[in-house]
Amino acid sequence: MKKRGFGKNSNGVEIEHYTLSNKSGMRATIISYGAILVSLEVPDHRGKFADVVLGYDSLDGYLTDAAYLGAILGRYANRIARGQFTLGEVSYTLACNNGQNHVHGGLKGFDKVVWAARDISTVMVDALELTYLSKDMEEGYPGNLTVRVVYTITPENELKIEYFATSDKDTIINLTNHSYFNLAGHESGDILEHQLMINADRFTPTDSTSIPTGELRSVKGTPFDFTRPTAIGLRAKQSNEQLTYGYGYDHNFSLNESEGLSPSLGARVCEPKSGRILEVWTSEPGMQLYCGNFLDGSIRGKSGVAYQKHQGFCLETQHFPDSPNQPNFPSTVLKAGAPFRSATIFKFFNQ
């Protein structure tokens, strides 16, 4: 593993930049600010490598970023209605930083803090551990929460992300990585021709503010049916209330395999020209499909590329949005002293 500096944040803290790799040449770079995945280089069917995640060349881009490019999100990824939830007999109020709702941990979520990084590589694999203490009532959440995230690159061209946490008070937790993928390369235009399969028979429809209604709706006969490989853009412009609410795809899918300790297949994506294939395996019960609907060319990414609408897709493995207010959704309560663990694996192949 290689380590270097990546500049200093506004408080003068040096941000560290780590490069993980394997013998096949796959490389991932991660920084200690936001535990952000900055780049991910994988080969196509001819052996040519490309960086398949959107990001910035310098720290300055991440310090002002509003799109959460590549970041670890928490304490609660995705939305909580009206920034309110009740735990036990206590009501909590969070910042409403997404219209009338709370999103991705608040004004200063885990994407905007400095993590302590440690090289935990072995002779077999490169691995990076990042830890952060989210103090009691930080951003309105109860409990001193110790979070640990481990990135590993395996010999099989997998990027594995493991999440661990404990709290000294009952709290809620929902962690994910918010990378935008483009399997043709981050600079290669839109992802609408990518062929996507999501292993989900149901999704969670939302209201006009992107808060789930509580329904688990069948994908059959809707633009949300990705049970067979389908071009992402094929039905993205169909007349559909849910697509109108999300300005395209920005919805949670209830994965067919139930939550467990061992990850199961959540999605498979193929980019036809390069032959790159991505499989997403996860222990989480849900996955948010978001297709860069709000990218508008104003973000200047790596190599000065202006990221346009639909230039990347996110497959955010997660518990469901607004679960603390939805009793029929899988619980996101973490009891005091209990361990939290989750794992997601991004596997890369060629065809």
For this entry, give a set of tags.
mainly beta, Beta-galactosidase, Chain A, domain 5, 3% helix, five-stranded antiparallel beta sheet, 351 residues, single chain
Structural summary, described in words:
With 351 residues, the protein is mainly beta. The protein has one domain: Beta-galactosidase, Chain A, domain 5 (Distorted Sandwich). The chain has 2 helices and 29 strands. It has helices spanning 59-63, 241-246; strands spanning 2-8, 14-21, 27-31, 36-43, 49-51, 72-73, 79-80, 84-87, 90-93, 102-103, 116-119, 126-134, 145-153, 158-167, 171-172, 176-177, 195-198, 202-204, 217-218, 230-231, 250-254, 264-270, 276-282, 286-290, 299-300, 306-307, 314-318, 333-334, 340-350. The strands form 8 sheets. It has a 9-stranded antiparallel sheet with strand order 11-12-13-14-29-23-22-17-20, with no helix packed on it. Strands 1-2-3-4-5 form a 5-stranded antiparallel sheet, with no helix packed on it. The chain has a 5-stranded antiparallel sheet with strand order 19-18-21-24-27, with no helix packed on it. Strand 22 (264-270) and strand 23 (276-282) form a beta hairpin. The chain is globular and about 60 Å long. The relative contact order is 0.17. The model has no long low-confidence stretch (mean pLDDT 97).
